[in-house]
Amino acid sequence: MMIAKTTMPLVIVTGASSGIGLAVARLFSAAGHPLLLLARRGEAMQALKLRNSLCISVDVTDRAAFLAAVDIAQGRFGMADVIVNNAGVMLLGDITRQDPQEWDRMLDVNVKGLMNGIYAVAGGMAARQRGTIVNISSVAGRKTFANHTAYVATKFAVHGLSENLREELAPSGVRVVTIAPGAVETELLSHTSDPTIKAGYENWKTNMGSPVLSAEDVAHAVLYAYQQPQHVCIREIVLAATRQQA
Ligand code: NDP
Fold first, then answer.
1. 10-239: what fold?
2. Domain segments of the chain: what residues?
3. How far, in Å, is the centroid of ligand 1 from the Cα of 167?
4. Which has fewest Cβ within 10 Å: 4, 16, 80, 230?
5. Among this protein's residues, is 224 annotated catalytic?
6. Ligand 1 binding pocket includes 239 (Cβ within 6 Å)
7. Three-state DSSP class for 94?
């Protein structure tokens, strides 16, 4: 880790080893923030060589490890002003045939892992009367798609808990922002185990006729929401490729 003097507040990003989280890490680093980057693949985060970044290999479902990592970073860089709860998995499947362990994994990472991130910072932010919690949901947190039943369950949960949290934290001046992207070109689909569903999803993206969103497109939405004055809460941003109909 390279340490240089910084007066900018700490940003925590989960799932920073690839895709959207990696792009968010780069963008906030370019804006001058020190970073706590969390994901299981530590080397991928180290390889970014971002200034003032602490990269810790953590599974977000491991609450104790998550909290310990946040403690270390806050000891070094000061209290976190924003957390981007981005780590997630999408294991698409036909619910009548899908291995329920895939549901468990999605619920554990996408919902309980995200709640671990909230737990790590919300109390401190409320006490300080400032802070921003950004939760990465999905268009699949607003509407349904074929073979998405369990994934949709997790993303509707993210939408629901985020809005509830926003209402609860509003009186203490803490913002809660939900970002809901449509299809983004990342590693996300690669973990789906059903080859037919995977191929169908790739076809859907190709048939849109133009590139889907890039991870950087989503990262810019996150930075935009964060950089508003603290009294302005962008409650939700829904963004998708212009040619994405669903
Ligand atoms: P990627 O697969 O590229 O990135 C997912 C990130 O989550 C990786 O850094 C991965 O790191 C991390 N992660 C997964 N499981 C865990 C875990 N148990 N503990 C810690 N980190 C974990 O996908 P995206 O960038 O696309 O996904 C980011 C978020 O965006 C997800 O919440 C996803 O649902 C959401 N999203 C994505 C869309 C898309 O089309 N790509 C559309 C809408 C929403 P590692 O494997 O190193 O642990």
1. Rossmann fold (3.40.50)
2. 10-239
3. 26
4. 4
5. no
6. no
7. coil
